[in-house]
Amino acid sequence: MPNSQIKQNVSVGRILCSIFGHRFIVTRKVTAHIKEYECACCGKQVTIDAKGNLASLTPQLKEINETLAMLHQKKLSQAQQHQHHPAA
Ligand SMILES: [Zn+2]
Question: Any idea where the domains of the chain sit in the sequence?
Answer without folding.
Answer: 2-81
